[in-house]
Design brief:
The chain is of the alpha/beta class and about 240 residues long. The chain contains 10 helices and 8 strands. α4 packs parallel to α6. The longest helix is centred in the middle third of the chain and has 20 residues.
Length: about 240
């Protein structure tokens, strides 16, 4: 007997009314600022640009895009004090780049969010950045009031992706849907996909505007892969049809 997917289990009355969207790489184009901010942070901790150590650490940052940044720095620098120093330096560097006008919405992202809201869906923006960095991005884009809820790892108990905690926090805090199968998760990284799968979301959509390619997204559980988040409203509409 064929096992039904979460979306196939939806009844006609179960709308996909909670949409949890990643920020950098999914709804926000930052032009590689994560890598630039990491290099600045690593330099403060004595990691020489161009060294083998720097290259190895940068490869890990790339592989773990989407994960809580403090978790990444704990892995890279070992002890908690150095991890916190690196995280603070990263936030400061990223914030300066954001303030310098180095970010922009992914084309069609705001329009997609507004369409989803107009259809009666609740949209939540989530990130692996700290709250101060997330707020700086929202302010730079003028998105402070765009969605009902924004979440960072600290808002969900401290664990970021690939754990499902932020998706489940959105589910619990908004009360927008009756079951997790009515959640849509979209992101540009393998960790976004894993967090969506682990949450039980009905649709886990990868987008090709950020860190990881179609193969990486699919291998980590994407139910669909889209060119960009601008295509998401049509995907949801088709899933409900």
């Amino acid at each position: 007997m064929k096992k039904l997917s979460n979306t196939e289990k939806l009844s006609s009355t179960e709308k996909l009314n909670l949409v949890v969207l990643d920020m950098a790489g999914t709804t926000v184009a930052d032009g590689g600022l994560v890598e630039q901010a990491f290099s600045a942070a690593a330099g403060r901790l004595g990691v020489e640009p161009g060294s083998a150590d720097h290259a190895e650490k940068l490869d890990y940052v790339r592989a773990t895009m989407g994960e809580s940044k403090i978790s990444v720095f704990r892995h890279l620098f070992g002890d908690e004090d150095r991890a916190q120093q690196a995280n603070t330096a990263f936030e400061e560097a990223y914030g300066e780049l954001v303030d310098g006008g180095r970010i922009a919405p992914i084309p069609g992202a705001r329009e997609a969010i507004e369409r989803l809201k107009g259809e009666g869906r609740t949209v939540v923006l989530s990130t692996g950045f700290a709250r101060t960095t997330q707020d700086a991005i929202l302010a730079a884009l003028g998105w402070q009031d765009l969605v009902a809820l924004t979440l960072c790892p600290a808002d969900a108990g401290g664990r970021g992706r690939p754990y499902p905690d932020m998706v489940l926090a959105a589910f619990l805090r908004t009360g927008a849907v009756d079951g997790v199968q009515q959640i849509v998760v979209a992101g540009d990284t393998s960790y976004d996909m894993l967090s969506g799968v682990r949450s039980g979301a009905g649709i886990v959509a990868g987008v090709l505007t950020g860190a990881h390619d179609k193969d990486q997204l699919t291998r980590n559980g994407a139910t669909h892969v889209l060119g960009s988040v601008a295509e998401l409203p049509e995907l949801i509409a088709r899933a409900e049809a």
